[in-house]
Amino acid sequence: MTIRPGSIVVVHLNNPTEKFWGVLQELVMTGVYLRGISLSSFDDWMAQAVRGKDQTLGLCAMFVPLFRVERVFLDEPVGEVESYQQRFARRVGVPVERYLGLFEEEDAGGVGGVGGVGAN
Prior knowledge:
Number of helices: 3
Strand order of the largest sheet: 4-3-2-1-5
Structural class: alpha+beta
Mean pLDDT: 86
Strand content: 25-35%
Shape: globular
Largest sheet: 5 strands, antiparallel
Number of strands: 7
Number of domains: 1
Helix content: 10-25%
Distance between the termini: 28 Å
């Protein structure tokens, strides 16, 4: 698999050190466009999705300048350690792509936008 727009990724930032999970919107020479949430808020966001109401947390659109980007990883399992996507699906009972309103149409040459429940 390759990292491309529409991929679900984990982005590690420096100065200050932060980690974000989300949908890669665009990777350009100047930085990264991401629709995501801080990993420190991921479990709260997931718990909110389980409750299904009082949506106070959600993904936000952000741009991170390239000088802050340390690493970008695909959100995928490593050995027996689940990916964040797998944790979400197991706990919430629905794939995160469906929850976010992502439409996987790779055969048609693209991936739909992010919207729907849980998106700010």
